[in-house]
Design a protein that fits this description.
Chain B: The RecF protein is involved in DNA metabolism; it is required for DNA replication and normal SOS inducibility. RecF binds preferentially to single-stranded, linear DNA. It also seems to bind ATP. The structure holds two protein chains of two kinds. Helix content of chain A is 37%, strand content 9%. By secondary structure, chain A is α/β, with parallel strands linked by helices. Chain A folds into two domains: 49 residues, RecR Domain 1 (Helicase, Ruva Protein, domain 3); 146 residues, Dna Topoisomerase Vi A Subunit, Chain: A, domain 2 (3-Layer(aba) Sandwich). Helices cover 42% and strands 22% of the residues of chain B. In chain B, strand 12, helix 10 and strand 13 form a beta-alpha-beta unit. Chain B is globular, with a radius of gyration of 23 Å. Classes of the chains: A alpha/beta, B alpha/beta.
Chain lengths: 238, 393
């Protein structure tokens, strides 16, 4: 379709790049923006820029946060022996909402998916291993590509270690005892979990995966067959 | 299960058609190209969200119409009549509604409204390449066991991911590192061996259904058998054992490893499965006569019908698209008797002449109904034909 204004066209195209937004929705949103008071548009625009400028990633667990280390990593009340591995920050928030988990987290930033061009080195998998064993080498894992910056791989003075505040309020480091894999139960999530399990096998940590099955409050008859089959597979004694 | 009424809007030859069907035999008579097959296709779309003829959804939309919409009212699925509606909008996709509520996934309807089709294209089942036979296998298993379809879709996804990884390393001097490939291989083997085990278990029981079906339509005492040719030597004499198959799968992958690196794709798995059909010791694909091909394909479809019927405890809809054109009178009569019996539920038949059916089916409108399909104002029209009238094109 032909636009009569280049700035309208630009906005539509930018909005259409967002996930779940198609061209039609982008046009509808653009029309709405055109009708909004200038003050509101400015508030929206600065909120967008602020989120980019002020929000950072925790250098330990890679959750999006306003401070580094994030409130979870710097909390004294949390058990530091357990790390729950999730795909995205939003998954972390979902688990936090349960209020039942008292350990730390590690946000991978996605899952391994060759079709999307995502390999283990594009995720925070090596950083996870380094949290368990700080001597875990930097650089591409197992690829053996010659372009790996191997010069600073050997020393133990690891970047994330020096970043940690050394003040009184920094919690004591504790050896990791358990890694809980809370990735999504689909093909890519399963494969990523398997990759991590292989990688962490040499270390003395318990590896667990969150259970799959029926949702609480759900009716058996409304559960889809795959979930039910899975739940039957993982049945336990009463 | 019965389809009581069908509404078709902007689908192929149909502009706007509404038909009320009889609970047993429904015969649609008309000239070629007026929309008889399209009516069966519409039913098939409602049951399985796709056509039984290979074709793009886009071409199913009537010319100059923005979308197509199909709606059927079914009895015998739930305690109350159930309406299923399918809407397809080009470039936006398909959506299925059950009793007006949209389904989360299209696949959720598969198996709820079982359907079996006899069509002239069944010839490919016994005469052409192995993908036709795998499609047949997938069709039955998906309708009978929804978890199978889920596993199969996940298997395809894992294979696609693994292929992509192999492809990315094809032109490189070294093969993909074990640490990268092993997780995909593991997933491939886990899902693939479940698919094979499920197929093996199915074929174990299905052979009996096939032999029974063959006896019903063929007087000659020939014994039909199916040999399952998959990644390992598995016999259909026993049920599938996913663990043993997984071991064989891994061994085959290890053998083919260098070939996989060279070709940049997965070379082992159920995507290469083959079914070998035999009559006594004669391999149907290579040595059977035209008549034997036809009988074997019909027996397969009939066996599919009885298998689904028993597994789902519900009679599937039976669609017979131009299936009697090449059958002799005697066999047509045998088949028509079967369709009227209690072994078969509701059926839908297309033909160019009503003559072969008028003699054997009492079109009294209570159980059986004869329809005339023709073209009016450039669109298909389906009307009830007067009973006992010799309708022909």
């Amino acid at each position: 379709m032909q636009f009569t204004s280049e700035s309208v066209e630009t906005l539509v195209e930018e909005l259409a790049k967002l996930p779940t937004i198609g061209r039609k929705t982008a046009q509808r949103l653009t029309n709405h923006v055109l009708k909004m008071p200038r003050a509101e548009v400015e508030a929206l625009a600065s909120a967008l820029v602020d989120v980019k400028d002020q929000v950072m990633q925790c250098s330990t667990c890679f959750v999006v946060t306003d401070q580094d280390p994030c409130p979870i990593c710097s909390s004294h009340r949390r058990s530091r022996a357990t790390i729950c591995v999730v795909e995205e920050s939003s998954d972390l928030l979902a688990i936090e909402r349960t209020g039942d988990y008292n350990g730390l987290y590690h946000v991978l930033g996605g899952v391994i998916s060759p079709l999307d061009g995502v390999g283990p080195d594009d995720l925070r998998i090596r950083e996870l291993a380094q949290r368990i064993d700080p001597s875990f080498p930097d650089g591409p894992s197992g690829d053996g590509a010659p372009d790996a910056p191997s010069s600073d791989a050997a020393p133990d003075a690891d970047a994330s270690d020096t970043d940690a505040p050394e003040g009184d309020d920094a919690p004591e480091p504790v050896p990791v005892e358990e890694v809980i894999l809370a990735v999504n139960p689909n093909v890519e999530g399963d494969t990523t979990a398997y990759y991590i399990a292989q990688l962490l096998e040499p270390f003395d940590v318990a590896l667990t995966r969150i259970a799959r099955g029926l949702p609480i409050g759900g009716d058996l008859e409304y559960a889809d067959e795959a979930t039910l089959a899975r739940a039957l597979e993982g049945r336990g004694a009463v | 299960m019965t389809l009581d009424s069908l509404r078709i809007r902007s689908f192929r030859a149909h502009k706007h058609t509404e038909v009320a069907f009889a609970p047993k035999v429904n015969v649609l008579v008309g000239a070629n190209g007026v929309g008889k097959t399209n009516t069966l296709e519409a039913i098939h779309y409602l049951c399985l969200t796709k056509s039984f003829v290979a074709s793009n959804d886009t071409y199913a939309v009537r010319q100059e119409a923005p979308y197509f919409e199909l709606e059927g009212t079914f009895s015998g699925v739930r305690s109350r009549p159930m309406t299923a509606k399918l809407v397809y909008v080009p470039h936006e996709g398909k959506q299925v509604f059950v009793n007006d509520a949209p389904l989360d996934r299209l696949a959720d309807i598969v198996g709820q409204l079982p359907v079996v089709v006899f069509s002239p294209e069944d010839h490919a089942l016994t005469a052409e390449g192995p993908d036709e036979r795998r499609r047949f296998l997938n069709n039955i298993l998906s309708q009978a066991h929804p978890a199978y379809m889920n596993t199969l879709m996940k298997y395809r996804r894992a294979r696609k991911q693994r292929n992509e990884l192999l492809r990315q390393y094809r032109k490189k001097p070294a093969p993909p590192p074990e640490a990268l490939l092993a997780p995909w291989t593991q997933k491939l083997v886990q899902l693939g061996s479940q698919v094979v085990a499920r197929r093996q278990t199915f074929l174990h029981t299905f052979t009996d259904y096939l032999q029974d079906a063959y006896e019903r339509i063929e007087a000659v005492a020939e014994e039909p058998t199916i040999t399952y040719d998959t990644l390992a030597d598995v016999s259909t004499d026993e049920e599938g054992n996913a663990e043993a198959i997984a071991d064989a799968f891994r061994a085959r992958l290890a053998e083919k490893q260098d070939h996989e690196y060279k070709r940049g794709t997965t070379l082992v798995g159920p995507q290469r499965d083959e079914l070998v059909f035999r009559l006594n010791d004669l391999e149907v694909r290579r040595y059977a006569s035209q008549g034997q091909h036809r009988t074997f394909a019909m027996a397969l479809k009939l066996a599919q019908y009885f298998y689904l019927s028993d597994t789902l405890e519900r009679h599937p809809l039976l669609l017979l698209d131009d299936a009697f054109g090449k059958l002799d009178t005697e066999r047509t009569n045998v088949f028509m008797q079967l369709l009227q019996s209690n072994d078969i539920g509701q059926s839908f038949i297309t033909a160019t002449r009503s003559a072969p059916f008028a003699a054997t089916v009492p079109f009294d409108e209570a159980n059986h109904r004869l329809f005339q399909v023709d073209t009016k104002n450039d669109a298909a029209r389906v009307r009830i034909a007067p009973a006992h009238a010799d309708v022909s094109a």
